[in-house]
Specification:
By secondary structure, the protein is α+β, with helices and mostly antiparallel strands. It folds into three domains: about 80 residues, no CATH class; about 110 residues, LysM domain (Membrane-bound Lytic Murein Transglycosylase D, Chain A, Roll); about 120 residues, Distorted Sandwich (Glucose Permease (Domain IIA)). It is built from eleven helices and 16 strands.
Length: about 400
Amino acid sequence: MKFVGHSENSVLEADKILNKPLVSVLSGEDFIRKQPPKRSKRANSKSSNQKQRPSSGPLFSPAVVNSDLNSSREKASDDLQRSTRNQFQNLIKLTPRSILLIAVLLSTSVAGVLAASLISHSHPNISLPDENSAQEALMAMLEPEPSSSPIDGSDLPPIPTLLAEKSYTIRRGDTLQTIASRFGVREDTIISANNLSSKSQIQVGKTLKIPNMNGVYHTVKKNESLSYISRAYGVDMTRIADANNISSATIRIGERLFIPNAKLNASVLRNFYGETFIWPVRGQISSPFGYRTNPFSGQRTFHAAIDIVVNRGTAVKATREGKIADTGYNAVFGNYVIIRHADGYQSLYAHLDSILSKKGTSINQGETIGRSGNTGQSTGPHLHFAIFRNGQAVDPRQYVK
């Protein structure tokens, strides 16, 4: 039958593929040459009998077709089982060299899989933050994390916009710090409101004005406008107008305005706390500030400085930070240095043996500017030290600490 022949050829083709040795599959070479399976005499005789048997019925008889199909299925099953047995038998008959090659190939494959697994576990993928997340991380460091229970804005007292002042009489044990803490304002706000210049002015029985908000006072000068003052302090003009209850932009010279949230200059605070100037040298004062008899002329003259006795070559330090305004030699003062400071202050150092600073350079407080000496009109080694405020000489002993 044609069906039988076709099924038999398919089975033989499947058997050829299945009987290919494992080594051949891995390496691509046939290390083991298999002989095609020999058909038994019984199968040959059966095939010849089938060819010689005359058909005794219809060509497509259902019974004959079913019988032939069942016979083909049984034969295909027998061939598959036989090919499987032959495959294992051939593996058993492998030469030691072939077995060694198979073992090497298998171990290499397994080692590769294990290595890939270990590498993937020991070096996980690294996820780099993008630009936005890096920016957020950064902002998180700068800003505090939001509270889990945010405070309701209605619980906070409203920020005052209109200035109001209270009076307070200083009691025993009060300091500027305790008074400021009691009223919830900064210390410089109280200093500005009361025109205080020194902490020695905080005395029992003195009455202070306490503003209801932080800020400083400003006295309007010639050619100043509300817009100019707003820019100078960096405070919105509307806030200044609201605090002072100003209905128009017109302001008068000499008018005292409160600037909300503004702060006093650092040098003003140093003046108040007595920490503005330091001693340029340490020694005995041979001639104080004020009138005296001039040792060279014998006349009564005003000595606008103090003379400090020190050995020649002593380091002279800047009494305060500033800029070197001038250096040079004078017949009276000898070698001298003048420093210009903030807030209209200047300091003079005279009779120096040597000058160690240059005109126009900035100087830090305590930095050495020269060496003491005996140059100019001098009766002996000393330092002539003077402080000027807005061009007027002041007693250095009232400023140095």
